[in-house]
Amino acid sequence: MSHAYNQAVQLLEDARLGADAASKASALQSLRELVVHAHPQELMPALLPEILELRLQPESALRRVLPDVIDGVLQVLPTLDSLLQCLMCLTGLLADPVAAVVRRAAQSAHPLFRAALVRVALTPLDAEPALQAQVWEAARAMPAGLAAGARSASTDAARVSCLRGLESAALLLSAERLPAVPGLSPAPAALPASHAVLTRAGLAQEADAAAREVAAVVRACDAAPGPMAEAALRAAGALATQRPHFMPRLVPALLSVAARQATMVGETATTSGDGGTAATTESGTPTARDDGKSVALPPATRKALTAALAQVRRCTHPLAAAWARKVDRALADLAGGGGTQDGAGEACVVAGGRDGAAASKPSQSAPGRPAEDPRPPPAKRPCTEDRATEPAGPALPVESPRADGAELATRVDELVARGDSAGLAALYASLDAESAAELVLARLHPPGGAPASLAADGAPLPAWQEDLLRRMAAPGYASAVVPPPVTDASRQPARSAAPSPSPLVAGATAATPTPPLPAGTAGLAARFTTDPLPLSAGEAARLRALTMRRLAAAAGGFGHWLAPRLAATQADLAGPFLEELGTDFHARGGVEAVLDFLHAAFAAEGRQDLGGEDEAVTERQQGDGYRAVLSKALDLVRRALPPTDRSLISVLLSAPALPAELLRDTLEGLMQTDLDHATLGLLAARDLILARPPAREVALAAVLAAAHSEDAGVRDRAVRLLTNRLWGCLGGRLQPKILREAERSLRQLVVREDGAAVKQEADGAAAARVKAEATDGAATTSEDAGVEARADTEATAVKRELGEGAAPSVEGTGSVVDPAAACALFCALCTRQPGLLPRLFEAFGSASASGREGILKYAGGLATTLGPTSRDLLGALADLPENCMDLALGMLHALASALPALPEGLVRAAADLAQASCDARPLVPLLRGLGREGLLARLPLLLGLPGAEAGAALRGAATDRLVPPSELLVALHGLDPVAVPGGVRAVMAALGDCLADPDAFPAEAVAGAISALLTRVPLPPLLLRTALQAQASGPGLAAFVARTVLPALAEGRVWEDPGAWRGWVLAAGRGAPATFPALLALPAAQLRAARADLPPAVAEGLAAHALRETHALPRETVALFREG
């Protein structure tokens, strides 16, 4: 098996048997990278079933990774067999008890279902017909699984994801053509006319079942309003307009919800005065009805319902005409509370065309409503089956020409005098933004005088004012097409005024209406004159700020439309608006309110037309006012939301313009805060690079700067973003800049011959690079004057910002101090472009000591990622530059520790490197790959290792049984000292290290080696030295030397070799009295000589022993001892 397969098997075992959930999930992520991205053709067919079986593991973190694996399978190997396995796995994950797993599975459901449909449809039936049927049967179960998840998942997020998957399935099954799928179908294709597995009738039935499930969710949405209900309403509206033949399924469900809501509104209006059960509490919170089945929808859900019905009404398909009257009636009921005077709502927007005249006429029972609308209805929008789903919610008011001030004041006076709330609401909705803002600000004064303090926010208002506030806060108010006021409309009954009523009529769109007061109010016209009372600057500022806070706190409707425009055009109102927005960001309008704010500020400076995304917005095109507004808005979003919230990214992507300095400061501030904010900054930079070309340079520079961060966590995430996501995107257009910055940073580690860091070269080139960029920018923005001067100024500023000791980069990143930070990006790029390895080795050879340490931190990971069979890696080892042995050793050790089996090519490369450099260190980690013969042949080279490394290598070889220990000892004794780099001393040191480790070289192995050496002629020179060391290592070997080795040597006339004879006598003296028999067996002459060299105590003991054993000794020997 290959190395990749063995590594994958090990990772699979780690994913199954890891110590904890985090380690298991990490192992599965690594396995996914290896199987899906690195070696899909080799590993996926064999290992995919076992990987998908991990869905049975108890850890939810492990199961959440499986949809990522399935997404990868669709990209690289969408065969029938693999699709079947993925479908079965994903269907099981949709029924998982953990909501996060269900949500992630639902996100992958549509791509998998689409691939299965296209694969089965385009595969000839004669090719594995049974397998095709199995795949489609498994695919048919997926919509049912999504429907179950939409009903029973434990979180709104999971249910919404399942519902979106169900909606996509219904659209896909009912489409006229098969969609384009990468790797399966390059372009949309027609469904085969005759297919045994797929038929149009069968697909239509499946699509109808999916639509029926969506309708069921819609019918239940008012029993549990919230995000799920809003998503269901939007899905129903989109399905009904994109696939009109689903209208009989979906429109009745929408109408039933609308009818229940209109009934509840009517009941509330009629029973709230006598103590009946209302649909809301005093705080405005929706409460359950008496039947326990429905609640009054909150504004957001009601807005989604209105938008869905409006979509149906705007559709021009013939099937939509049958529902026009009912939809108009439902929209009127939603806008006006079941046919009361509040009938001016969404119905006015969609009432053009067929049946539109009836819908646009006001109700005869509604006082204060105009008789007709002389303006033409809005143009119809075509409804096509393939257009994208329209966003929910009403559109903003159509900007009309500025209203005449005097005429406007007269109309307002008339409406206020009559207490005509409907007319006032209509008037405000028909105004352009500036006229509405001026009218609101002009009328912000206390009624009946100028009291010292404002009335409390909860002070009761007259009924007609309450009605006006409700209208202006209602969903869809701002999109109504409003007729001009008429003079014969009836008034509402007057009511008595409360003490000090709130002065904020148009602005105070409070979410909760206050109880009405008794009738009898007089002088309403005097309270709302168009001429403001004289106020001090402080009182005016307080009124304006309070107005902005109330507008920003509005639940929806006109307040949300007007507040950001007022704040953007009035400098002193921006602060209160943003402060109120920050108290509850998403409830106050969230990203939509911030973007309205920014667009209004940008339009106020006359720069509304940018000419498209591809046109760069230069610094001169952005005024200081917009820049300040944008800065405040970004600061608000950053402070008000946690770093896990992605609203800041949405603001950056949709802002009308992003000044380069402000964007750079924002991204750098995020990345320098903490790891979570740095992650948010990196994600923002990624999206800006991919989706907003004018901001691409600044965003890329921010990511490159983060890749050199001294914070290891930030640095690692930035490097992964650059190498895994940005390196291959945009057709590779970012690669030169990323590589240039990585090389620049790497060069900071290089030390020249004179010891100076490479700095002047980069500094000298900085001005030229900045000047070139400025020249290019001038060609784009037509700024021909002063380019060179501005480039010189910018180059100086860059140098000042980076400091004298730093080398500026093209992208303007900061100086790099940490060696690990300097080389992290380049090392990571080597995994994407292995041809860069020679440059890395050259830099290592010229780097300082700290620079080499930094590169060594990444050497192991780089080598294991490239793999032992990488041609570039083997080529770099074969042509190793000077001073790069440590880097090669780090890579070899990492590969050896990660590989269960060493490839032959890697072992050969290491052996050649060792031979060429006369350095055995490359062999040490790969000894097990050399084999017995290869190891014994390279013993002389291994003994040249410094210090105790040679003995350690030999002990390791003996412990791993690469060579039998006894054979290794025999081979060491047979070496020619001349061939060993360290000579005989190196051999003796190695033997000493081996004999000192009884675990690696047990007594039996030593005894066997000595016995084999005793048969050699001539005797090895180091045999007696080895015998002496063995004699000292333990009693077992001491007895063996005394009883076997010394007698054998004596029989071989050891005295004829003076060196060996001295060793023999020394061993005999140390082993006494066990060596006395061997001594007494010597001839008399040799015994006399040996006795003279023995220690005195040993000689006396030998004599006593000989005189006791006279009967067994020769007479010459006995006589020698008797002579004394």
Oligomeric state, counting identical vs distinct chains: single chain
Number of helices: 54
Sheet with the most strands: spatial strand order:
1-2
What is the first-to-last residue Cα distance? 76 Å
* Strand residue percentage: under 5%
State the major sheet.
2 strands, antiparallel
Mean pLDDT: 74
Spans of at least 5 consecutive residues with low confidence: 266-292, 337-403, 444-459, 475-532, 607-622, 753-816
The shape, in one word, is elongated
Radius of gyration: 44 Å
User: Which structural class fits the helix and strand makeup?
Assistant: mainly alpha
Explain what you see.
The chain has 54 helices and 2 strands. Residues 266-292, 337-403, 444-459, 475-532, 607-622 and 753-816 have low confidence and may be disordered. α9 (156-173) packs antiparallel against α10 (200-219), α30 (675-691) packs parallel to α32 and α47 runs parallel beside α49 (1035-1051). The protein has a two-stranded antiparallel sheet. It has 1124 residues and is mostly helical.
How would you concisely characterize the structure shown here?
By secondary structure, the protein is mainly α.
What brief labels describe this structure?
1124 residues; elongated; two-stranded antiparallel sheet; mainly alpha
Topology (SSEs and partners):
Blueprint lengths: L2 H15 L3 H18 L1 H13 L7 H4 L2 H11 L3 H15 L4 H24 L6 H24 L3 H18 L3 E2 L10 E2 L9 H20 L7 H16 L4 H25 L27 H16 L3 H4 L2 H13 L9 H5 L5 H5 L44 H14 L2 H10 L2 H10 L20 H11 L50 H4 L9 H16 L5 H12 L4 H10 L6 H15 L19 H17 L6 H8 L5 H12 L3 H17 L4 H11 L5 H15 L8 H13 L12 H22 L5 H16 L16 H14 L4 H10 L2 H18 L4 H8 L6 H14 L5 H14 L9 H11 L1 H4 L6 H11 L5 H9 L9 H13 L7 H11 L9 H11 L1 H17 L6 H13 L5 H5 L3 H10 L2 H13 L6 H8 L2
Antiparallel strand pairs: 1-2
Helix pairs in contact: 1-2, 1-3, 2-3, 2-5, 3-5, 3-6, 5-6, 5-7, 6-7, 6-8, 7-8, 7-9, 8-9, 8-10, 9-10, 9-11, 10-11, 10-12, 11-12, 11-13, 12-13, 12-15, 13-15, 19-21, 23-24, 23-25, 24-25, 24-26, 25-27, 26-27, 26-28, 28-30, 29-30, 29-31, 30-31, 30-32, 32-36, 33-36, 34-35, 36-38, ...
